[in-house]
Amino acid sequence: MIIGVSGNIGAGKSSLSRILSEKLGFEVVYEAVDENPYLADFYKDMKRWAFHSQLFFLMKRFDFLKRVDSEGRVIIQDRTIYEDVNIFARNLWLLGHIDDRDWGLYQDSFETISEHLKMPAGFVYIRCSVETLMKRISTRGRDYESSASVEYIKKLNDLYDSWFDELEPGRKIIIDGDRLDFVLSERDRQTVTRQVSNFVSRLSAGVQAKLFDSC
């Protein structure tokens, strides 16, 4: 099964994914940030490069989903294709960095490939305040992210909350990223690992029950 680790820029998705791999033995597919040839240019000129950058992420995540075989194992996906569509690309359209014509093409592209997608079994959302996110962005050393404004991060946060609220209750959990520092605190790391382990166990039990009922 695939578990999506979700959260805004600076929330700690990659760190949590790595921890879950080390502590629980889950496989991890990290976000292709360093592979995106448009990302540095995007942060310098969002209006010029927004569509290109988002289309790259859309295709990369689709490529992973069409090839992956998750049967009998747990795969952690560092950000999902649904966040690209419902949060990041949508935010850029709302801000006017993607025009209506390109937004229409982007949505049509997603609708075409969505017929071939299987939604993750569950989502782990690292929810952080804008203040926490801005602090982490400033300290993690990605120069191109330093230009991200408070307004941009806040709008992403609002879209994340709206999107996550609409997900099926039994398929999601929230990690309090303001209170739990799973990167620096071993105690918090154990707490979060336990929360995710219990969540995955419940999802696995539900999948097994459905298979039994279908027999």
Polypeptide structure, described:
The chain has a 5-stranded parallel β-sheet with strand order 2-3-1-4-5, sandwiched between helices. The protein has helices at 13-24, 39-44, 46-67, 81-94, 100-114, 130-139, 150-165, 186-214; strands at 2-6, 27-29, 75-78, 122-127, 172-176. The protein has one domain (2-214): 3-Layer(aba) Sandwich (Rossmann fold). The chain is built from 8 helices and 5 strands. The chain starts with a strand and ends with a helix. Residues 211-215 have low confidence and may be disordered. The chain has 215 residues and is an alpha/beta fold.
Largest sheet: 5 strands, parallel
Count of extended strands:
5
Q: Can you tell me the CATH superfamily? A: P-loop containing nucleotide triphosphate hydrolases
Sequence of strands across the biggest β-sheet: 2-3-1-4-5
Which structural class fits the helix and strand makeup? alpha/beta
**Name of the CATH architecture:** 3-Layer(aba) Sandwich
Order of helices and strands: EHEHHEHHEHHEH
CATH fold category name: Rossmann fold
Content of β-strand: 5-15%
Helix content: 55-70%
Let me know the average pLDDT: 89
- The whole-angstrom Rg is 17 Å
Query: Oligomeric status of the shown chains?
Result: single chain
In the CATH hierarchy, what is the class? Alpha Beta
Total domain count: 1
Through-space gap between termini:
20 Å
- Backbone shape: globular
Number of H/I helices: 8
Please mark out the parts with pLDDT under 50 across 5 or more consecutive residues, or reply none. Answer: 211-215
